[in-house]
Known about the structure:
The complex is a heterodimer of chains A (about 575) and B (about 110).
Chain A (H helix, E strand, L loop, with lengths): L16 E5 L3 H12 L3 E5 L2 H10 L4 E7 L7 H10 L8 E4 L3 H10 L3 E3 L6 H25 L9 H14 L5 E8 L2 H8 L1 H22 L2 E6 L2 E7 L4 H16 L6 E6 L8 H17 L6 E3 L2 H22 L3 E10 L6 E13 L3 E3 L1 H10 L3 H23 L5 E5 L9 H12 L6 E6 H6 L1 H13 L3 E7 L6 H6 L4 E4 L1 H5 L5 H17 L3 E3 L5 H9 L4 E3 L7 E2 H13 L1
Parallel strand pairs in A: 1-2, 1-3, 3-4, 4-5, 9-10, 12-14, 14-15, 15-16, 16-17, 17-18, 18-19
Antiparallel strand pairs in A: 6-8, 6-9, 7-8, 11-12, 11-19, 11-20, 12-13
Helix pairs in contact in A: 2-3, 3-4, 7-8, 8-9, 13-14, 14-16
Chain B lengths: L3 H7 L3 H7 L4 H12 L3 H10 L3 H18 L2 H15 L6 H16 L2
Amino acid sequence: MVNQKKCFDSDHNEKRLVLVVEDEQVNREMLGLMLSAEYDVLYAENGEAALSVIREFSSSLSLILLDVLMPVMDGCTLLSIIKKDDDLKRIPVIVLTTEKEYEVKCLKLGASDFIKKPYDAPEIVLARVQRIIELAESTYIIQNTEFDRLTGLYNQEFFYRYAEQYDRLHPQAEMDAILLDVQHFHLINALYGHDFGNLLLTVIADEVRRCLSDIGGLVCRKEADMFLLYIPHGVDLPDLLKRIQSVVTRHTGNSTVKLRMGIYPLADRSLDIMLRFDRAKLAKDAASKGKHGTSVAYYDDSLHKQQLRSQQLIDELDHALESGQFEVYFQPKYDVRGDEPVLFSAEALIRWNHPEFGFISPGVFIPLFEESGLIFKTDSFVWQRTVEQIKTWREKYGIIFPVSVNVSRIDLFDPILAEHFTELTNKAGLPNSAILLEVTESAYTEDSRSIVDMLEKIRSRGFKIEMDDFGAGYSSLNMLATLPIDVLKLDMSFIKNITANKKNLYILELIMQIKDKLGVPVIAEGIETREQFDLLKGMNCDIIQGYYFSPPVPADKFEVLLKEKVKK
Amino acid sequence: MMTLDGLRSFGADVNDGLARCMNNEAFYLKLVNMAVSGEGFAELSDALSKNDLKSAFEAAHKLKGVFANLSLTPLYKPTNELTELLRHETPGDYQALLNEILAQKARLEAL
């Protein structure tokens, strides 16, 4: 079958396909002769036969020429079927009739034009046919680019264009730029299925559209669950969100679906329209990272300063790497299964000593580099330094001391990541088991198939995989049995609340009970006190990391611990 | 053997009909033969003899379209007249018009 694209080929190597539906053979052949000079022609002698041809060639048909009075199924019936069918309605129909009464009826049903009997001269028929095809194709292109197929809202490109137009036409208007989305939308899709996700999006779209018909303004679906609203300032936005939220809850019958709004109020018109919505997004992101349950967040001065600083850090990354502002620290992990804790391994952690800001927390710059796609640069810096360090220690002390490094979710999409690690260890003359990869739990749950495939590939080469932050997100114990994991690293929040929260304690006990059966040792990190240490050791935890033993330290300080280990 | 000159003497607007066939003479003659030997005449006679005016209208309407496209004026005229009478089931001499149509058909076949 011919591809849809054919309809839009600018070179006319291939002829467009038209269908003549006419019960009278003489008329059919006459039209066919006229059309075959320019088109490939299909024929059908009644509505029913035509419908099956139309369905078969639905993606490649450019036009239907349709007689009205026919046996079996008449033209009007067929026309109404075509125009009600989402797959077929784009195909324009020219009705062949002499009858005035049918003209009105067919126009109402969606006919594009008429050709009377007796037919006009062939040139005229061809010109009409060509005009209708061109019209339908350009309409189709516009509709498909201007509107989001699922919700019927504008897509972002047209939205931005119309927003700019709105500004021109309303030079004094004060506007708010708003981003609206659904909390944990990918999770909702995973839990309830894509049909539910799509229903949710159309319900939101319909309600926003309804609201905007009262208050004015524009809306589009930018991507996935992200809606952009550009509306006159002064609307009670928390109230607007409540209204949309209540409709969503009612329509979906699901009260766990929560909407969020990021608002850039009185958006600065001197800023590019896209940047205005970036600020709305920034407000939303900041709110979702912070206090739980904040559903409306505003872009303000402090966010603005933060944004400028973030940009500065991004801009300075390359220079910082070259000028040695980054350093790798090591935090020891102790095996606590015996009577005495034994130095077992270490985690490599990055430190940034900024000449202007001083020590910058990885909690600040790592998420930033992850978002901007730069994380591979800092991650691979740590990997490289770590391998060099293990090599140095081997030369000095004759032991291969295994160290774990962090691997960001984004790194796992690099198709040659396994090769990259192998090259690192090969160059240093180290076995692959010297490196442990810490992969955060959320990486497994997000886009699991491709990530799991990558991890299996890496693991098959002898590298060990630690699942980091276990229990922070939505993992299940089931994952431990099925996924490529060598070590489980508990999320720090378990430890923090361990004495206050009984439930956490029970979950911990449960994990400790099954880990041995699954053959997956457990690491607890963030252990700061004797009390926490005793509790975890008592629960049969395997390995412990935290300030209780040592903070992350530079390589030379770490070496002191290593020397002691070697002596013993 | 039907020819363009024969059709002209019959009263057809040959140039007009020929133009719709991209001036392809053989194709035009083929369609005229097809029209004359079609089942439309029998359907019309049949419906009228049964006094089924709705079917008669549909048959007449169809014939009218074909004759118009081929510019067979002597056939078109009585067919058109009959179609208009049948459309609203206006009382009239349907049989006389049918006879006229069949007579013109016979003239054409005799060419």
